[in-house]
Write a structure and sequence with these properties.
- By secondary structure, this protein is an alpha+beta fold.
- The protein has one domain.
- Helix 1 packs parallel to helix 4.
- The longest helix has 26 residues.
- The chain is globular and about 55 Å long.
- It starts with 11 loop residues before the first helix and ends in a 12-residue tail after the last helix.
């Protein structure tokens, strides 16, 4: 498997800035960066007003998962110097993929194929539960998506 942008040299800051600009162009009125223990940006929180309602969203960057994939792509004979570069590469790759995804989705919005709420619905943030809509549904085994009476 070849991961998209697995050799990206685009700094994460540039990809994040690109995402922020796309969000602003499409109505984001607030954007907040969340940092992890390694002082890396781990998610973007943003608010978009839809039909007069401010909706909060959380766009996560799952860098650890990307790092696992990149490590799995390495040959068993890889040099230790290459292995040491993987954490920084995972940051660049994760944010570049997210930037590409946001750009594609925003193009779909501009075409009128989808609404912004359709694109980001799974990232809708509930501050009380500290979960996205996807995380809440996942926790319940996605049962809330099924018609009443189905398991």
């Amino acid at each position: 498997m070849a991961l998209k942008n697995y050799t990206s040299s685009v700094p994460a800051e540039r990809s994040i800035s690109f995402i922020e600009q796309k969000l602003i162009q499409h109505g984001a009125k607030s954007i907040i960066k969340q940092y992890d223990a390694n002082k890396q940006i781990s998610s973007l929180f943003f608010i978009i007003t839809v039909d007069g309602v401010d909706l909060p969203f959380k766009l996560p960057a799952r860098i650890a998962e990307c790092e696992k994939i990149l490590l799995g792509m390495l040959s068993s004979r890889v040099r230790s110097e290459t292995r040491k570069k993987i954490p920084a590469q995972a940051v660049r790759t994760t944010w570049k993929i997210l930037a590409d995804a946001v750009e594609s989705q925003m193009a779909m919005i501009e075409l009128g194929n989808v609404k912004i709420t359709e694109v980001f619905l799974s990232y809708l943030w509930n501050a009380k539960t500290n979960q996205t809509a996807f995380e809440a549904l996942e926790q319940k085994g996605f049962k809330a998506l099924l018609p009443a009476g189905e398991k």
